[in-house]
């Protein structure tokens, strides 16, 4: 089933076999990988190649997520599985993917790098899926549909029943990118349990956002053993370095801390949203299930430039179709949010003076 979707060159590929994956037993003397046996020119030892399949870390993540370790792939950020899925399933110059705009920019960039066509199906007015439009855009060469939930830059969760409906009616891969799922109050994904039922589903999550580990670059892909096997076959052999494997292993003990940051972020998000809504230069603050707000301004460029002069950087999304005059504002610490609101209040005073 999955094999039918796969590129033939990948189906026929014999993966590179690294020294560390050929021998996995317990031995004392490792003369198999041309490493420096004397030590490392660094404080912490890193002279040995890392575990290519990150087995220990996957066991811990499996426990946390309630999913079999064999259904987990770890990548150098979520960007790695996004790229690998395209390289495994889409024939360059022939196949295409569908993305639901406005959405995360990396799906399109990864597709273009791989010479894969991108079909854009706009989200509805309230940024939900238009299931019928998506299905009519799909053709025999559509291999992957990317859904982002909560969606970046709009901030909203996508309706579960629409995801299930696409899984039932589309024969290719469905990727659900849940980079912001830890900000959803239940804390749990509605898509992960669907892996039991659907072999063509891939769920992406990351340590870059709520876990506060963006600099380590660790993304997770959850899928059927069959898809995980394909990703493992084509990844570079040692894609996750030892420092990242160790640090994330230690970080997993602090899931409670992540929860309390998420609670605080939601509290601050509601406060910032309420404060923004009363400014006359703000047209609309969209509801958010993530750690950012999409805000429609009367003149986004003017607000953006003003904030920059005050040393505050937000994301200007005003040139993105369906996000005209919108800024995407990340929720920061209480003090940072206060500084943002104070700067906007000054901006408001300035506008009032000019009008008078
Ligand atoms: C931030 C973000 C990611 C995370 O990417 P990493 O490579 O894991 O840092 C993935 N998807 C979306 C939609 C994001 O906004």
Please sum up the structure shown.
This protein has 356 residues and is α/β, with parallel strands linked by helices. The chain has helices at residues 2-5, 8-11, 19-22, 55-65, 79-89, 106-113, 131-137, 160-169, 225-234, 242-251, 255-277, 300-309, 334-355; strands spanning 72-75, 96-101, 117-122, 142-148, 173-177, 201-206, 219-223, 282-285, 292-297, 315-316, 326-330.
Shape: globular
Main beta-sheet strand count, sense and barrel state: 7 strands, mixed
What assembly state would you assign to the polypeptide chains in this entry?
single chain
Helix percent reads 25-40%
Counting DSSP H or I runs of 4 or more residues, the number of helices is 13
Radius of gyration: 23 Å
Defining key terms:
binds pyridoxal-5'-phosphate; globular; alpha/beta; 4-stranded antiparallel sheet; 11 strands; 356 residues
